[in-house]
UniProtKB/TrEMBL annotation:
Domain Chitin-binding type-4: 30-199
Name this protein carries in UniProt: Chitin-binding protein
Gene3D superfamilies: chitin-binding protein cbp21
One Pfam assignment: LPMO_10
CDD domains on file: LPMO_AA10 (cd21177)
Amino acid sequence: MRRKTKWYASALGLTTAGALVLSAGGASSHGYTDLPISRQKLCQNGTVTNCGSIQWEPQSVEGPKGFPGSGPADGQICNGGLGQFSQLSAPKTPSGGAWPTTRVTGGQNYTFRWQFTAMHATTDFRYYVTKPGWNQNHNLSRSDLNLTPFFTVPYNGQRPPSTLSHSGRLPTGLSGHHVILAVWTVHDTGNAFYACSDVTF
């Protein structure tokens, strides 16, 4: 009887530990942008190599919400403050080259697209862009960005479909290489998802 009790307790412990592991993994799987293509998606599709674990989970760049007043620290914005994805915040790819860019035109409408693996209740989607003359030689900081979003999509606590597109006007007065920061704010947790896309105006 004592052996059976011990075995049951051990099995229960393993089951509980497994559930916690699954729960933690599931909690980190949510969404990313592929229009304009984000750094994490470039890693996932093999356009950029040697990215580390983000290549298998481009949807997992989750950090504290409240940007720009709170959220990830300067220098860690593109990786959501997650050390295992630090490659995403570097000014160069892990191979040392420039991040590939998407060509866009200021003042025109652009269709932004998110892909989701978990459709959370959503507060909004916000899009920020770097300022003219921003410092391209260091990890992205708030001082590099216009901290007023150029496009906001309220979502009022609704859950998005697995693929969501919305069209908004790109800012004018920009030329050359810039970074668009997309922030998806989850309604019922303390977190948001971050995606940086390199573009050429």
